[in-house]
Amino acid sequence: MFLKFPVLCLIFHCAYCISHHPILIIVSYDAFKYNFFDTKLVPHMETLKKQGTYADYLLNVFPTKTFPNHHSIATGLYPETHGVLGNTYYDPKTKQVEHIGPQMFRYSNNVVPIWRLNEDQGNGRYSGSMMWPGAYYPYQGKNITYRQDFDDNMDWYKRIDTVISWVTDRKKPANLVMLYIEQPDTYGHIFGANAPQFKDMLRKLDNITKYLQDQLESHHIADKVNVVHLSDHGLITITPQTFINITQYMKGGTYTWAGATPCIQITPHKGHEEEIYTALKDASIKNGHFKVYKKQDFPKQWHYKNNPRSAPILVMADVGWGLDDMIEASKKYAKIFNFTLTNSSEFGVHGYDTSVADMHPYFMARGPKIKKQHKVSPFHTVDLFNLFTELLELPQMPNNGTLGNIVDILNDNKQGRYNVGSVVMVTVGGIVAGLFIIALITVIVLLIIKHRQNLTTVAALNKRFPQTFQNHIESQHLLDAEYA
Ligand SMILES: [Zn+2]
Asked: What is the Å distance from ligand 1's center to 139 Cα?
């Protein structure tokens, strides 16, 4: 009898070892294309998708590469604003090609990722990152509470167990965790999306999705944690028959190369700008399967040119085509993974324009603040930041996303700050107030006009007729006939 009370206390206490703030886990599977559900290899994901809210696809940012897109998801900003312009880029400040590291992600102190914004509110808000690209580094001089740097040797189940341990930590329970898994991207690049190895990876991702859900349920927190599942981009499969050697058109030692198929950032050395542009442009016309842009001509919808890290020349392979780095990478993959490289060997690539459907990632979400069995229209990757701030009840931050694009994901049950009821009330209230002001102004203007007309009418009549009219009403019938 006496033992029961402490045991019950322990059970009760552990069931509530979570943050008193709204809780959100964001899960990214790299290169999980929107239509991988059609493979029928991900039944658990399909079930979750139908239970919560999903979109057919997300409209991601250019270039459709991993680091720019993950940072746009985390900040709500386009690459030209957050400064992560590619998986590598040439930095005119350091005069070298930069790879992943704090210098890549910390372009400006004004860039505040969601994990930093969450923890900056204090009052027991803690953020965690399980390998999310860029979240390992300090922002605004501060690190978040829980961080695991990228380590592809770390078992996926262990990653999820660790995430759950952060969320249920007795002293500092995380209320925001970013979870990143590098597949199916890695196997997609090496084997292409039709390979059995790739398909096996989709099955494994399906299994860990179920594992995460099972863990939330076994900890009795599934109805308290919002989970957003998404990806950064899709991919397509190409073969060596479409690889183009573009370095043959430029003199060695006259430029710096950054980026990878299909978009290459070329920085000509001083004095070689026009020579390189003209050579590449001529070659692109002759070849017909890649395009060359000067920085001032980058399409506006890329949101890519207004940044000093943006290279003076960009080479873009057409969809389905690869460039020099693929010639090298395919040889390397064949050697490391022990297969014979042929003209029909398949490799996965991404990075093409955001208008290419194969580049689009998936989106689905579930949890207490998210609508059940609901589908929303496709929206932009940069809109996600607003979704996160709404789910976490954080202050709004200026960003490139549109709040209105994500409101329909949020539950109507008063937990969202912008539930449909309040939106309708605010809208109707605004319209009524606006109409009242317009009516008031109209009445005042009419009274002024009437008063002036009265004076004019009386003056006109006094001029035309020798008698004096005392007021407008008295004189009106005389003028009406003249102007009828
Ligand atoms: Zn990626």
From this structure: 22
